[in-house]
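Q: What structure does this chain adopt?
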Amino acid sequence: MLRLRVFKSEDMERVLQLANAYAAFDGITSEADLVITKYFPNGFWVAEEDDQVVEYAYGYFKDVPAAALKR
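A:
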């Protein structure tokens, strides 16, 4: 059964594996590419099946804090 939940830092390795296998557009995705998740933690969700992350989704509001835009 698929279960949705908010991303946790320990999901990073698996999310990067998925991103690089299925969603990389301009090169390899790294932790630095996902730093924005620290500013919008409730906008990053994962889907688990059999206790393994199998999908992820991320979204945020257009009004991004200045600190996030400077990165």
